């Protein structure tokens, strides 16, 4: 287990989660049982992104890593299947519940997505000469 250093982030309340989901309409809450603790649940913010092909999806993930994950030092659970990228956000050291750290990361990811969609290409396509 990763050691907890510094002050723990606060879990988001119900009203904060509702507001967030209104601000970020592509996101939703998902719950699942904690492995080995079926009486406890993990609550995650979830979002699916779809792209034209695998390369575009991979460039998006790379941009998210470079511009959001590393800068915010907060890591998603995510997976890529061909042209789809699925993202789950939760803060493990407050009981696997969403926190403001997850909100900051979701908003950063959405900014990259918005740039990609408005430009009709992946977020770093211009930088790589694609």
Task: Note the topology.
Layout: H1 14-23, E1 28-34, E2 37-50, H2 54-72, E3 77-81, E4 84-89, H3 100-119
Antiparallel strand pairs: 1-2, 2-4, 3-4
Helix pairs in contact: 2-3
Could you state the oligomeric state of the chains shown? Answer: single chain
So, CATH architecture? 2-Layer Sandwich
Give the C-alpha Rg.
15 Å
Can you tell me the residue ranges where pLDDT is under 50 for at least 5 consecutive residues?
Answer: 124-130
| CATH H-level superfamily title | Transcriptional coactivator/pterin dehydratase
Measure the end-to-end span. Answer: 40 Å
Task: Report the count of strand segments.
Answer: 4
Provide the residue-averaged pLDDT: 85
The largest sheet has its strands arranged as 1-2-4-3
